[in-house]
Design a protein that fits this description.
The chain has 255 residues and is mainly α. It has one domain. The chain contains eight helices and six strands, in the order ββαααααββααββα. The strands form three sheets. A two-stranded antiparallel sheet has the order 1-2. Helix 1 (15-38) packs antiparallel against helix 2 and helix 5 (115-140) packs antiparallel against helix 6. The longest helix has 26 residues, at 42-67.
Length: 255
């Protein structure tokens, strides 16, 4: 865990910021690449990427602040400091999808790509961004695992966000590894689907299943809806929604 890369009298460079910025940059390149492959209109995907990026950051930070309003209500000056950590993956995904939907609806009149094609191009970038996000949390101590005992590949001596070390689930490294596997699987199968949207829905299933499993290992404070963490419900909802829509569209594609 190395939360700070560079610390001078007037400047602090956080590892979280570097990893997050790097994953965003790689994601933008992937979106452009996929947009060129899917329709040759890479400029539309590039434009949509910037709208989705800002909408995603606003959604991710806004949902995190709302979930932790007890703290932020007394520290309003920290609400906009997302570069120090504190972004909700689920809020970011929702904000980005809303931006893609609006962009697709507006540009469709001018023969631009539809929402499903935009979403297909963005899903590999989302999974690659998930790798960077988990690595960033590993370096900063956020999204840490529960105290646990188990095999060395699953339980490590890791700190929480307050620096307290003990044997706990290696949630962040595990999340980065699973995200990388999901990205590779999606990338290798992206040309095999019968119609636009299937690649995105398959990715949504992967994200939902992976998120649900990882939420079971997390020990950080969060909202609870009943006996489950809010992230468990949201991940399960992504899994069911993605699987349901994919099955419905698959049946419609059959002759």
């Amino acid at each position: 865990m190395h939360p700070v890369i560079l610390h001078t009298k007037h400047f602090i460079l956080y590892t979280y910021t570097v990893l997050l910025a790097g994953s965003i940059l790689c994601g933008l390149v992937l979106v452009w690449w996929e947009g060129k492959r899917l329709s040759g209109q890479s400029h539309h995907y590039w434009n949509a990427a910037f709208y989705a990026l800002w909408a995603g950051i606003i959604g991710a930070r806004g949902s995190y602040v709302l979930a932790n309003w007890t703290y932020f209500s007394e520290h309003l000056d920290e609400v906009a400091r997302f570069w120090k950590g504190g972004l909700s993956w689920y809020g970011g995904l929702a904000g980005g999808l809303v931006a893609l939907g609006l962009y697709g609806a507006v540009t469709r009149r001018g023969k631009g790509p539809a929402f499903w094609m935009l979403a297909d191009a963005f899903m590999p970038a989302l999974l690659l961004g998930s790798v960077g996000g988990w690595l960033a949390c590993w370096m900063s101590g956020c999204a840490y695992g529960k105290p646990a005992l188990g095999p060395s590949w699953l339980v490590w001596n890791l700190p929480d966000i307050y620096g307290v070390r003990e044997l706990r689930f290696a949630t962040q490294p595990l999340g980065a590894g699973l995200s990388l596997v999901a990205f590779i699987l999606l990338w290798l199968t992206r040309r095999r689907w019968p119609a636009p949207g299937f690649n995105f829905l398959f990715g949504l299933i992967l994200l939902g299943g992976m998120g649900y499993l990882l939420e079971l290992t997390r020990g950080d404070d969060t909202l609870y809806w009943g006996a489950w963490r809010a992230g468990q419900w949201l991940s399960l909802g992504m899994l069911i929604t993605g699987a349901g829509i994919l099955l419905w569209r698959w049946l419609r594609q059959r002759p």
